[in-house]
Amino acid sequence: MPDIQRRNTALWAGFALIVVALLSQGLYFTRIPGQHVFPWINLALAGVAVFLLVIGLVRAFRQPQVYRGKISGSILTVVALAVLVFTVTMFVQVRNMPASPRAPQVGQKAPDFTLNDANGQQVSLAKLLSTPIGNAQPKAALLVFYRGYW
After folding, report:
1. Contact by Cβ (8 Å): 15, 80
2. Any idea what DSSP says for residue 114?
3. Which residues make beta-bridge pairs with 132?
4. Which of the 8 DSSP states describes residue 6?
5. What whole-number distance in Å separates Cα of residue 15 and Cα of residue 129?
6. Average pLDDT, whole number, for the chain?
7. What is the mean pLDDT of residues 57-79?
8. Using alpha carbons only, what angle is made at residue 68 by residues 67 and 74, rounded to the nearest 5 degrees?
9. Structure pTM?
10. Phi and psi at residue 23, in whole multiples of 5°?
11. Which residues pair with 133 in a beta bridge?
């Protein structure tokens, strides 16, 4: 009578953790309290996921009669390693962003400017602050600056 094969839970737990680690990469860019912790959590999740996947892979190759997952374990481990490399790269690259000393700070009055909007029309800050909205004169304008490299 052949041995009953068991599901290799370390492989699937590692894969689930690597998916969570990849999704949590996006949490770093949200404005929630304690966000400075997320890069470390991402690294920890990805590291534990790779560890679990390696354990599952070793089980699958050393005890193939008991544990399944030679092929799927190999594929999942390679994917997890790629996500770990991506996570470490993002962790390092986010810290290499140059400072923007000339950007206005929160609460500071912005200098007047004129830029094109999404429709190609020129819009100035002075015009935004002088154009009534409904029956009220605007008191302020919310400016959002996206930093990046294009």
Report:
1. yes
2. E
3. none
4. B
5. 52
6. 78
7. 81
8. 115
9. 0.53
10. -70, -35
11. 136
- The percent of residues above 90 in pLDDT, for the chain, comes to 2
> Is the separation of the CB atoms in 24 and 39 below 8 Å?
no
Q: What mean pLDDT comes out for the span 122-141?
A: 88
At what angle are helices 9-24 and 70-95 packed, to 10 degrees?
20
What 3-state DSSP class applies to 57?
helix
Provide the token pair at 3: 């041995």
Alpha carbon distance 27, 139 (integer Å): 32
> Quick check: helix, strand or coil at residue 121?
coil
- Name the amino acid, one letter, at 11: L
Q: Which residue has the tokens 């190609």?
A: 120
CB atoms within 10 A of CB 114: 10
pLDDT of residue 20: 86
The yes-or-no verdict on residue 1 having pLDDT over 50 is no
Delimit the domains of the chain by residue range.
9-95
Q: What is the mean pLDDT of residues 33-39?
A: 58
Q: Is 22 or 114 the better-scoring residue by pLDDT?
A: 114
Structure tokens at 36: 């400075």
Write down the residue that tokens 């030679």 correspond to: 70
